[in-house]
Amino acid sequence: MTATIVAQQAINGIVLGSLYVLVALGLTLIYGVLVQINFAHADFVTLGAFAAYFFMHTLGGSYLASVGAALIVGTVLGWAVNVAIFAPLRQKGSELLPLIATIGVSVMLQNAMLAWFGPVPYAFETPYSQRVFRVAGTFFTLQSVVIVVVSTGTIALLYAFMRFTFLGKALRAVAQDRETAGLMGINPNYLIMLTIVISSALAGMGGAMLAPVLVLTPFAGASVIVKAFAIVIIGGFGNVEGTIIAGLLVGLIESFTTQYLDPGWIDIVVFGLLLVMLAFRPTGLISERREENV
Amino acid sequence: MSDAAIVREASPWWRSRRAGFLIAALAIAMLPMVLTGSYWQTNLTVCAINVLLALGLDFILGYAGQLNLGQSAFYGLGAYVSTLLITKLGVPFWGAFVAGVAFAGLAGMILAMFAVRLRGHYLAIASLGFAVITYQILLNWISLTQGPLGIYGIAPPPPIAIPGLPAISFRNPVALFYLVAGFTLFAYFILDQLARSPIGETLTAIREDEVSAASLGINTAAWKVFAFGVGAAVGGAAGCFYAAFVGTLVPDAFFITESFTILSMVIVGGMGTLIGPVFGAILLTLLPEVLRGIGDLRLIVYGLALTLVVLFMPGGLAQAARIVGARLGLTR
To answer: Which of B115, B133, B303 sits opposite A104 (nearest CB)?
Structure first.
């Protein structure tokens, strides 16, 4: 009995964790390359979710196509935030101004969505939410399988892109040393743009996957983003492997806290872990070779 | 042209600091007489509380250069700690006030200790997380805070009896405004003294270049913790007044959105000056009241203002005033 509960919560945790990884990876990528935080990342998640919802429920597209629509919306938003905020503020060289400016964007987007879509949750039904599998006393929906498969696939693709393609190598070069990378004939501005666009596309896609499992309101992204920030710090800012591990860890913490304590404790436990990490291992779970960013 | 510059006195009397405080005190005294009616007098007190909150945040952000997204939490801690001490333990108002301020300040310092060795971003996120969990605790610790039901019927500060004069009752909104605005002016005075002392220069040095500051022997971590404590304590004081002023406490008043509102006030006013956030807070408090139509869109306007000011006028109203002043030949 208890073994079944543990297995069930492990499944729930991994599903949640893969969603968090998708959201947190974007934050960590931007931090790795720019040493900046896009606070509006959360709202890109929400906008992606709404894009998918309307693409599917109003335009009658399939769910997988609506995930694509969310990806495109995320891409456009990423491009826009780079052109409007990150690129012009990069010349000023301030550490906090871009963060503050994106907080403004976030407040604006969130309340614009509230005015537009209202506070009442939208029921995001996908054809996969109804299909339930039962394995050895545990159960999960096809939607959960889709989430884990798409997340894992995306992460694997991203990893391969970073490791094995020239652009990925250039990106890592810019992350390590922007000036020197520029001297080697790499255009840092273009790569920074590319990073923000990829990250935001991930956020949009994350929104489309997250909305059917969590509640779709204008605050859907905001409820995830604080955990995503915690994941990014626990994993080590700018560290992709660390972020993946930390994301799954936080997903598991959430499901087990819900089971054994109370859902109200989730943020408190996650935040406690964040403080412990800041105190004892501020560079994250995996801290070698990333010293240049801290 | 250059002759005029030489002839000019060091500074005209009306631009001295003392005159500034005198004018501010006069303005505070006059305002409830000019803006009569309980609607405006209520708004005046809201303004004073928001100015206090913005001053606290500005000390951390504008002087020490650390982004505090947890001001809503310090605000809430001040409000709840003082109120609970009064209602549950019967502590007198001013005792509870001191305890609320001290608690918020200590919470700020302890939080800052975790993140000060790292880049400013870490402190920003740690303080954001702190704001989230403080809200969660206020909401979920029902036996203590009554959660979403809230605490009702909080009494205003006790009347002050001066021999020979009628007692000043703070049930009178004008008296309460004088109390809050008077304290805000006092806080401004203290922060101004701090900012212009070697402490202020130390903090500015950390803001401008932490590595250089550390190389000059400045204990940057300790000073950042100090700045965080001062700013959080000022936020806590605002919370104590808020509880006494509104008479009702619900956790929603201290949601993270409140941190962003305070941040907008500081940025729009001009971080790194104390006078800027004063006007930023007043402007952003009164603007939605004046433009009734935007009611629900208030936060959209705040967000837009925040972004546009950072992009085009990072020094806020203070910078704008300096530019206009220079054009008109009022300042050097």
So the answer is: B303
- pTM above the 0.90 mark? no
B139 CB neighbour count, 10 Å cutoff: 17
- DSSP 3-state of B151: strand
Distance from CA of A38 to the nearest CA of B (A): 11
Interface contacts A/B by beta carbons within 8 Å: 123
**Which of these, A224, A260, A236, lies nearest to A19 by C-alpha position?**
A224
| pLDDT tens, per residue, chain B with 332 residues | 444 444 445 566 656 777 788 888 888 877 877 777 778 888 888 999 999 999 999 999 988 888 889 999 999 999 999 999 998 888 888 999 999 999 999 999 998 888 777 767 888 888 888 898 899 889 888 888 888 888 887 878 877 777 767 777 777 888 888 889 999 999 999 998 898 888 888 888 888 888 888 888 888 888 989 999 999 999 999 999 999 888 889 998 899 889 999 999 999 999 888 889 999 999 988 887 777 666 668 888 888 988 999 888 888 888 888 888 888 876 55
Domain at A135, CATH number: 1.10.3470
Q: Chain A closest CA to B247's CA: distance in Å?
A: 27
CA B278/CA A85 separation, integer angstroms: 27
Q: Which residues contact B37 (CB under 8 A, 6 or more apart)?
A: none
Domain coverage including residue A283: 2-293
Assembly ipTM: 0.84
Q: Token pair for residue A265? A: 């404790």
Contact assessment for residue A273 and residue A231, using Cβ atoms and an 8 Å cutoff:
no
List, in sequence order, every residue forming a beta bridge with A133; answer none if it has no partner: A140
Q: In this structure, are residues A21 and A155 in contact, taking their beta carbons and an 8 Å threshold?
A: yes
Is B249 within the bounds of a domain? yes
CATH number of B43's domain? 1.10.3470
CA distance A109 to A72: 17
B3 in a structural domain: no
Contact A271 B130 (CB under 8 A): yes
Q: How many domains does chain B have?
A: 1
Mean pLDDT of A4-13: 84
| Chain B residues in contact with A97 (beta carbon < 8 A) | 310, 314
Chain B residues in contact with A92 by the CB 8 A cut-off are: 314
* B294–A contact, CB cutoff 8 A: no
Q: Which two tokens stand for residue B171?
A: 């049930």
Q: Select from B44, B58, B48, B24 the least CA-distant residue to B191.
A: B58
- Yes or no: say if A19 and A213 are a contact pair by the CB < 8 Å rule: yes
B76: in domain: yes
Q: Do A95 and B310 touch (CB under 8 A)?
A: no
Choose, out of B58, B72, B144, B307, the residue to mutate when testing the contact with A (most A CBs < 10 Å).
B307
Tell me the residues of A at the B interface, defined by beta carbons under 8 Å apart: 31, 35, 37, 84-85, 88-89, 92, 94-97, 99-112, 115, 226, 229-230, 232-233, 237, 262, 264, 267-268, 270-271, 274-275, 278-279, 282, 294
In a domain, B332, yes or no: no
Comparing B13 with A233, which gets the higher pLDDT?
A233
CB atoms under 10 Å from CB of A61, counted, come to 16
Number of domains in chain A: 1
